[in-house]
Amino acid sequence: MTDTPLLLRQDEDGVATLTLNRPQSRNSLSQGMLRTLLETFEALADDASVRVVVLAGAGPAFCAGHDLKELRAAEYGRAYTEALFADCARVMQAIVHLPKPVIARVHGIATAAGCQLVASCDLAVAAEDSRFATPGVNIGLFCSTPMVALSRNVGHKAAMQMLLTGDLIDAPTALRFGLINEIVPAQDLVSATRTLAVKIASKSPLTLAVGKEAFYRQAELPLAEAYAYTAKVMVDNLEARDAREGIDAFLDKRAPVWCGR
């Protein structure tokens, strides 16, 4: 046992940076890590001081996926594995449902459930040397749960290529597939991600929350229903104080002052 925290948190300028802190195991997602992440995302949902979340990894990698040593030690007991994958699913959905944008800051490898984390985040900035894979097929364990997030981020053929081969793909390929937004030199990763996070954090927190929820909800609807739903969202959004302030500020050629309502 150790007193070293599984997750580090640093808040600055409306941005909460969460750092997976199991560098000795490439930040693998133990059950303890998953539950700590879930508790943290639940707390962040109600934290008005935070407008954007950055998810990063300590040490040489972003995240290598599930902790296979922990899985082996548990002797693959069904009750344990059911709880583990349920916890993982809750974490990934907590990222999507969090009313604040989440940016993955990726370096090293992001594999299996680590790649799932990247795909679950709203945005991803990656170092030039980062690599991505869903390699479960190589050890007889198809990456079925990572497939859910991956297939919602990249084209079907790209997703199937990653899932069926298990091969590592480089950052340019991940960018071409649509898994990440930007590639930067390794030495610029922290500053580039922070610049993006602070820029987003300068927007109305209400507008960010409304927009993120609407984005994911409309994506699952048929076209006509999506337009009907988003039209209502816009009508409701126009009644918010921040929308009125933003329009007035634009017309007055001044910076808006957000109140979050």
TrEMBL record:
Keywords: Fatty acid metabolism, Lipid metabolism, Transit peptide. One of its GO terms (biological process) is fatty acid metabolic process. One of its GO terms (molecular function) is hydro-lyase activity. CDD domains: crotonase-like. InterPro entries: ClpP/crotonase-like_dom_sf, Enoyl-CoA_hydra/iso, Enoyl-CoA_hydra_C, Mitochondrial_ECH-domain. NCBIfam families: PRK08139.1. May play a role in fatty acid biosynthesis and insulin sensitivity. Belongs to the enoyl-CoA hydratase/isomerase family. This is Enoyl-CoA hydratase domain-containing protein 3, mitochondrial.
